Amino acid sequence: MSVRLRRRYKQNKQPATNVHDHISPHAMNNFHQIMKRTGESDDILHRSFTFPTTNTKATLIYVDGTVDSQAVEKILSRAKFYSSKNDESYQSYFNEVGTTKLHTSIPGILPELLSGHVVIFIDGETSAYSVSLLKMSERTITEPLTETVIRGPREGFIESLRVNTSLVRRRLADEKLRFEPRTIGSRTKTKINIAYIEGIADESLLTELRQRLDRIETDSILEDGNIEELIQDATYTPFPTVYSSERPDTVTSHLLEGKTAIFVDGSPFVLIVPALFVQFFHNAEDHTQRADIASLVRLLRFGAAFIALLAPSLYIAITTFHQELIPTRLLGNLAAQSEGTPFPTFIEAVLMEITFEILREAGIRMPQPVGQAVSIVGAIVIGQAAVQAGIFSAAVVIVVSLTAIASFVFPSYSMASPFRILRFGFMGLAASFGLLGISVGFTAMLLHLSSLKSFGIPYMSDLSPFVYSDQKDALIRLPKWMMKERPKTTDHQDVERQHTRKPSPDR
Amino acid sequence: MLMKRLSSGLLVILSVLLLSGCWDRWELNELSIITGMAIDKSDENYELTMQSINPAEIASQEIGNGYAQSFNTTEIAPTIHESLRKHVNKSPRRAFISHLQVLVISEEVAREGITNILDFFYRDHEVRSDFFVLVAKDDQRAKEIMGIVTPLENVPSQNMFDSLQYGARSYGGTRIVTLDDLYQDATAPGIEPSLMGVTVVGDLEEGQERSNAEKNTPSTTLLMEGLAIFRNNALVGWLNQDQSKGLNYITGDIRDSVGSFTCPNSQEDEFALESFKERTKYDVRIVNHKPIIDLTVDIGAHISEVNCKDLDLSKEENFYLIQEQAEQEFVATLQETVKEAKAHQADIVGFGQMIHRKHPTVWEQLEDNWAEEFPNVEVTYEVNINITDTGNIINSFSEDD
Amino acid sequence: MRTIAQVSPRSYGFLVFYATCSTALLGLSTSLTSFLHQDAWIIPVVASLLGAGVVFLYTVLARWYPISTIYEMNDQIFGKPIGTVFSLLFLSLPVFHFPAITSYSVTFIQNYTLPSTPFIVIAAIGIGIIAFGIFSGIEPIARTAELCFVFFIVPLLFLIFTTSPLIDIGFLQPYFTSSMFDMTEAFSIFLGNVISNVVIQLTVFPKYLAKKKAGERALWTGYALGCLTLTIITFLCIAVLSPELVAVDHYPAFTLAQEINAAGFLQRVEATITVVWFICIYFNLVLYFHCIIIALKHFLKLTSVRTLIPAIALLLVYLADYYFNNIAEERSFYQYVSVPHSITVGTLLPILMVTVGIIKRKKHQAPLYPAYPDEATVYKLHHSKETKSSKQI
C-alpha cells in the first residue's frame, strides 16, 4: 500500500483554516464533528474503547460494510495489551492490523474513512490514525459475459480494482509492470490505476495519458465509460478510440505489446490505449486456437463487418438503381417477390432494420425468460407474418437477417455500434444515389477513419500506414514462433520479443 | 456553436436525402423487364414489339395465376427510342431493356439496312451490348416470332437465347452474334456482318396458343437456321445450315460440332465425326499484285457414328481413308460457303480484313472497290482432320459377328 | 506537435498512382485510338518512358527545394514578382481542369447510372466529399489512398484477368502503320493528359513528405504503376473491343468492363468496376483542390485555409455546372485547350524552372543534383522556414 503515498489530494494543498478542521484532543468531539459533516449518516459507526495500561480513551470510526469487521474486533480486543506511550508505537501497533497513516486534519481523514479505512481518534492526541481495512462485499471471479471463448481462460474482471490488478499481476510477474494510482472525481473519488510495462510502453504515450487524466475535472467517475469519454482523442465520431476488455489475458497481452491499461475501481472493464481499428476485430480466442483457423476467422470477421455495414444499402442500390447487375433469372425471382409489396425497398429495409433494432434492445434489457418470448414474437413478426401478409418482400427479410447475424460477429460490442449507426446512413445514401451514394459514403468513412488518432497513433495503423511486419497479428494471425517482434506501431523500445525458433523435432 | 454546426449539418444531409429521393430510383415492381425485342417495318415507321417477362409467373417459388409468362406489346413510331418509351402506353410499367437477350429484326428491315438500329442500341446507356441479334427468315414478321409459345421455355426470347447459346456449344450450326460483334463487323474495314436467321416451323396460329406448350409434339416450334449475309449493312442473301457451319469453321467460331460424311468405301453409307479443338489459320500471299488467301483449318475429331460396311477401323490405313474423305468434304463445304458469299459480293468471311492485317499497303488499293474485287480473290483451302478416337467401340456391329 | 503534415512514402505512392491514372484510365484509349487505330497501345509504352524525363525534372526541383511547394519554388527560382506570374500560370492548371474533370466524371455517372439526377446534385456530393478530404488534411487523404488500394486493385485485376482471355490479336494487326504525324499528335495527348498532370504532385512532394528520399521513390513507383495500368487498359480495350469500337466509344474502359464474364455467373458487374475510376478521379480531383488551397495559402499568406474550403467548393460546383454547354464543347476543350495548356504547365514550365535554376546554381556553385537532407535537417528547415527560405537559392 506504499504506492498510496503518491496520491495527491486537492484538500491537502489548502491549509486547514477552519477551527473545526483541527483534530480535537477529545476523541468523541472528533466523532461528533465527523457525524456533523456526514449529516449523521446511518452507516457510520463508532466504537469507543480504552487502552487499559494508560487509561486513554479512544474512538474508532468506520463505515459499516466497507471494512473487515473481524479486523475491527482485533483492534479492540488487543487494545488491552498495548503498553507503550509514544506516538510511534500507536502507529506500529495499528500497523500490525492494517496499513496505518497519520492525519492531522478532519478533511484529510474523511476520504479515507469513506473508502474503507478505520479512523481512530485517541484522547490527548491532535492527530488521528487511519487503518486500511478495506473489505467490501465483492462478486466472485466469473466468466466474462462479453468476450466468451471456447478455449482459453475463463476469468473475467470484477468490480474491485485490487482484484483486477491482481489478476493481471498473476499473469505478468514482471518487475517492470507498473500500477500508477490516480483518484479522479471530486465526489466519487474513484480510484484508478494506470498499468504499463516500463521499458516497453512508449514514454510519450504515458505522459500524454497522464496529462489527459489529470485534465479531468469532474465530480464523478462511475465506471470506465466515463473515463473513456473524457480522455478519447476524437469526440465527434461513432468509432471507439479506446479499447475496453473484460479479460485479464487480453489486457496482459496488450500490455506486452506496449500499450497502457486503465483500471477503474467499480468497473469490470479495463480500458486499453492506444486502440487501433484492427484491434477491435481481434479476440482472445485468436491466440488460443491454431493460427490457420484464427486467421480465417479474422478474415471472416472483416467480411462480416462489410456485410453488417453495407448489405442492406447494397441491396437497395442494386434493386432500385442498378437492376442490370442482377442476373436475369434472379431478377425475375426478385421482381416476383416485390410484386404487390406496397412500400419502396428503402422504406421496407429501414422498417425491418428498425424492427430488428427494437427486438435486439428488448432482448438485451428484458429478464431472460421474457427475452425468449420477445425473440419468438420477433421471429414470427419479422420472419413469417410480414412476408405472408405481403407487406415486406422475402428478399428484404433475408438481407436484414443476414445483416443482423453479421453484426453479432463483432468480437467487440463497442465496434458493432458505429456499424449499426452508419448502416442507416448508407441506406439513405443508397436510396438517393445508388452505388454512387455508397461509394461517396464509404470514402467519407475512410477519410474519417484515416483522420482519427488514438493517443497520437493513427487509428487505421497496420492497414494505413501499412506496416508490413505488423501484419503478423493484424488482418490475420501467424503462429507465435513467427512473431519475433512486438508491433512497431505501439512499441519502439524493447522490440525483440522472443528467440524461439520454429518448432521442429530435430532441435 | 456545436449545436449550430450539428443542426446545420443535419439540415444539409436531410435536405439532400429528402430532395433527391427518387430521380433515378425504379422499384422492381415499377419496371417491366424486357428480354426480347422485335423490329418490323410498318409503312415508313418502325414497329417495335417488346417482350417483357411476367415475374409472378416465371419465379420458381411463387404460385402464379397460370397466366402467360411473357407479355408482348407493339408500338409504332418513326424512331426506335420513341416506340420504346411509348411502350408504357400499353403496359403499366416502364420498359427496362438492360436485360435484353434477343433482338429479332425482320428481313424487310434488314434489307433496308441496320445502321439506324445499331446507332440507337449503341447510343442508349441502358442497353448492354451482349444480347444476340437475329433476322426473321422466310418473310416471317419478327413480331410473330416473339409470340410462339414452346414447351420447356415458355418465354420465346429466352428460348431463342438458350437455343443459340447451347447450339453454338454443341452443334456449331448457329452463329452467336452479339451487338458488339455486329458493330465490329459493320464498321471494321474488309468484313461484312452476318446474322443468324430464325423462323417458325409449323402453324403460326397454333404456335401463339398456350396449348402449343402443353403438347408432347408441339405443332409449332422456332427454328434457328441459316445466316443472313449483309453488304453495306443491308441484307442481301442467306447461307444455308451447312454453309453457316462452313463460315464458322473459317472464322474459327466453333467449339464443338458433329458432321456427317460419306464412307470412303461406299457412296450410300455415312459416318459421323464429332469435332473439337478447331483452329483456323490464314495467310495472305501477294502474287502478281493479287492477294491469295491460304486457309488452314486444323480439326481434332472423334468418330462418333459409323454406318460404313466392311470398314475395319482397327487398321491404321482406314483411319487415313476416313480422314481424307472427311477432309475433302470439308473443303467442299468451305468452298461452298465462300462461293455463296462471293455470289452476293458480301465479304462476310473477312478476307478484306485478312489482307488489311497482313498487307496494309495492298489493302489501301483494294479498299475502295472491295465489293467488286472480293469475288476475284483466290482462296486455297487446307483442312487437316486428326481423328484420335473411335468412341467406346472400335468397329461397327456387322452381320458377321 | 509537428505542424507540417507527415505523409508516409507508401501512402504517397498510391496517391501518385491514382492521380496518374485519373480520367485517362476511362477515356484515354478513345483519343489515342481515334488517331492511331490499332497502333494506339504503343503510345502509353513509349510515352511513359519518354515522360520519365519530365518526372525527372520534378525530382530535380524537389532535390533543390526539399521543403517547398511549386509556388515557393517559383518564387525562389524567378524571384518574387516573376515567380508569382509563373505560380499563377501553374494555378491555372487545377483551376481549368478541376471543373472540366468534374464535368466529365459527372457526365459519365449520369450516362450510366443516374440519368435523371441533376448534374449539380451529383457534382455537389462529389465535390462535397473532395472538400471533406481537404478538410481532413493531406495526411488523412494519403492514408485513405492507401486504404482504398484494396478496393482499387481487386476490381482492376479482376477486370484485367477476366477480359484478357477475350484478347484477339487480330485487332492489333497490321502493326505500325500509322503516320509519324498521327503518332506525334497522339503522343502530345498522352504528354498533356497523363505525364504533365503529374506536375500537381509538386504541391505535395517534397514538402509534405517526412522522408524525402523515399518520397521520390514513391513518386517514381506511382508514376510507373499508373503508366503500366494505362498501357494495360489501352491494350485490352483495343485487343478486346476492336479499334473501330474504341474510337467511337466515349468510355471505352467501361465498355471493356461490360465484357466481363467470369465462369458464366460473374457478369454484368461493370457498375462495381466503376469504383476503380471513382477512386482514380477522386484522388486526382483532391490533389487539384489541394493545389488551389495551397495556392491561396501561398498568395494570401494565410496560416489556415480551412474556413475557405466550403466557399471554394461551392464555387467549384457552380463552375463545373456551367463549364461546358454540351459534349461537343467539352471535346474541343480537351483537344484544343487541355492538351496545350497541360503541356505548357506540366512540361515547359518545369523545363524553364530547371534551366533558370541550373544557371543560378552554377553561378552559386551549388550542386546540380543534391542529395536530400536527412530527417533531422528537414525538421529544422521546416521550422525555421520563414527566416531561411529567402536566403535559399
UniProtKB/TrEMBL annotation, chain A:
Keywords: Membrane, Transmembrane, Transmembrane helix
Bilayer-spanning residue ranges: 302-321, 389-410, 422-447
UniProt-annotated stretches for the region Disordered: 1-23, 486-507
Listed InterPro entries: Spore_Ger (IPR004995), UPF0353/GerABKA_families (IPR050768)
Amino acid composition bias (Basic residues), ranges on this chain: 1-11
Family in the record: Belongs to the GerABKA family.
Protein name per UniProt: Spore germination protein KA
Source organism per UniProt: Geomicrobium sediminis
TrEMBL record, chain B:
Residue ranges of every copy of the Spore germination protein N-terminal domain listed in the record: 24-198
Membrane topology per record: Lipid-anchor
Keyword Signal: yes
Residues annotated as domain Spore germination GerAC-like C-terminal: 225-391
Top-level division of the source organism's lineage: Bacteria
Protein family membership: Belongs to the GerABKC lipoprotein family.
Record keywords: Germination, Lipoprotein, Membrane, Palmitate, Signal
Subcellular location: Membrane
Major localization class: membrane
Name of the protein in its database record: Spore germination protein KC
Taxonomic source organism: Geomicrobium sediminis
Automatic annotation (TrEMBL), chain C:
Stretch forming the signal peptide: none
One Pfam family cited in the UniProt record for this chain: Spore_permease
Keyword Transmembrane helix: yes
The keyword Transmembrane helix is assigned to this record: yes
Highest taxon, organism lineage: Bacteria
InterPro entries from the UniProt entry: Spore_GerAB
Membrane spanning stretches: 12-35, 41-65, 77-96, 116-135, 147-167, 187-206, 218-241, 275-296, 308-324, 336-359
Homology family: Belongs to the amino acid-polyamine-organocation (APC) superfamily. Spore germination protein (SGP) (TC 2.A.3.9) family.
Protein's recorded name: Spore germination protein KB
Organism expressing this protein natively: Geomicrobium sediminis
